[in-house]
Amino acid sequence: xxxxxxAARELVDALGGDMMMISNELEKLILYVGEKKRITLGxxxxxxxxxKQRSLxxxxxxxxxxxxxxxxxxxxxxxxxxxxxEAAIGxxxxxxxxxxxxxxxxxxxxxxxxxxxxxxxxxxxxxxFAADDIIRQARRYNSKRELTRAIRxxxxxxxxxxxxxxxxxxxxxxxxxxLTMEPKPETGWMQEELPV
Length: 196
Prior knowledge:
This protein has about 200 residues and is mainly alpha-helical. It is built from nine helices and two strands, in the order βααβααααααα.
């Protein structure tokens, strides 16, 4: 059995480097590809990421709507699955990827699925079920600056998670609270960037 380099990278990134989960997902992928004897990025996206992405897109929908209660409920549902807190880095990776996709959508003024497929390159595309949702979510942000702020908050949370905090759940809850906070309005020419 062979696995393409980009498929292996996506598998590790999505599962946060958890070897037990990677082993389990590899077994499923081997059964899925069968006689083909080669695991591609498309196979990983189909088998491993689809279920995770659905709930993560629901989470980003709540975050982009600034609906704290629903966002925290979605986070709790995600963390209460079998993977629990151990998959926190994988969840964060997917969240970061979604916000980067939204930034590209906003930068390129994507308005429909046809434009979306042209704007996002292979390996960075969204699953078909989420195309309209992610366009709508991206358009809730008034500026690239808001999305850049969100990406910085996610990066900061990623660093904190990798330092082995006492509670990964609390770190993710704090991130959701920060992401659902209304951005402060710019007050003058000296305020070029909001601190994160």
